[in-house]
Amino acid sequence: MPAPPPAAPSRFDAVLLDLDGTLVDSLADLRTALNETLAREGLPPVGAAAMRAMVGDGAVALLRRALRASGGDPGRAPALLPAFLAVYEPLAAAGTPLFPGAAAAVRDLRTAGYALAIVTNKPARATGLILDAVGLAPLIDTVVGGDTLPERKPDPAPLREALRRLGVAPGRAVMVGDMHHDIAAARAAGTAAILARYGYGRLEDAEDADAVLDDIGGLRAMIGALPAGRAPVS
């Protein structure tokens, strides 16, 4: 784990970052692994446009949606997860790029003194492989993946676990993600919320965000201008 950073020069101490659609563009590799898994089931592939609407809620949910769209049995999703991950994990480590400016933005946050966590619905092993491959692992204090806890975003439990590990109160943290479940989890946990509009979400996902980010290069400045985190939703 990186050495504890100095105190952040803002009203916030920590930034919780989603991965897919926020820091990395993983759609092509996810689709390759997904379609190989579907082919083994004798099912047709998922197109690029349809794929974009399926991601965000974890691998089992992705498989379930793809099976339903391809005429398969969505109930097969848990059983197909190991085969899907066996195809996907090598791709995730080698072929998923950072969004332009993402590495510099994360380094900028680290230099500014923020504690950093990845909070994603992607399985933790695949997350770690990607962070290593893109060079961000040394900058991240902790990772909460989609299989770290029984709950996933939009449940606030993954955010609360990240904050527990960092020793940061919810009102002193910002969640940054590209999907509705990132914003919903932030609201429930009591953190501030920034929607990465360049990612895989929808325009309406911005409705309950504190701010909307169109270029990740502006993340540090946006965090500096945010009000404190909201009270948790009961």
Automatic annotation (TrEMBL):
Function recorded in the entry: Specifically catalyzes the dephosphorylation of 2-phosphoglycolate. Is involved in the dissimilation of the intracellular 2-phosphoglycolate formed during the DNA repair of 3'-phosphoglycolate ends, a major class of DNA lesions induced by oxidative stress.
Catalytic activity: 2-phosphoglycolate + H2O = glycolate + phosphate
Pathway stated in the Swiss-Prot or TrEMBL entry: Organic acid metabolism; glycolate biosynthesis; glycolate from 2-phosphoglycolate: step 1/1
Cofactor(s), by name: Mg(2+)
Residues that coordinate or bind Mg(2+): D18, D20, D178
Active site: D18 (nucleophile)
NCBIfam families, A to Z: HAD-SF-IA-v1, HAD-SF-IA-v3, PGP_bact
Name of protein: Phosphoglycolate phosphatase
GO MF term (any one): phosphoglycolate phosphatase activity
